Input
Amino acid sequence: MKNKKKLKVSIVMGSQSDYKTMKLTCKILKKLGIKFETKIISAHRTPKRMYEFATSALENNIEVIIAGAGGSAHLPGMISSLTSIPVLGVPIESKKLKGLDSLLSIAQMPKGVPVGTLAIGEDGALNAGLLAAAIIANRNPIVRRKLNNWRLSQTLSIKKKPK
Ligand code: RP5
Output
């Protein structure tokens, strides 16, 4: 996949079961016209895949990595330890602790290796896409315009009075 100039965002997740949440990230990136790829990569089940992905991300033209993981969710932190590309972490709503485990695991990175942590579940998945778009928009006016239009249509959709 080397030198595919247009690839911007990589969405990775620890399991197939995370996809129902991470689909929201795909949806918003599609809407904003941002190229992305999706991969299942588990820090503990496929550590070699994780290493190879993270260490080749820069040469694969990835600008932002969005990593969704649940439970003992070390995937975003481990990826961030292997690359200086910005990593956004989405805590998946786990079955046992409703995602509190994932949230703390992703958010509580010790100093030196950052992960931008989003909200638990679908809110975080969608916002991760918006945040990736905002990062890319810093040097891409077309993405900036699309992102601003999306935000404006959200504002316009909010009614002034409850029914
Ligand atoms: C994590 O374990 C994954 O990110 C997923 O959220 C969780 C459960 O995985 P499955 O048992 O559904 O494959 O690694």
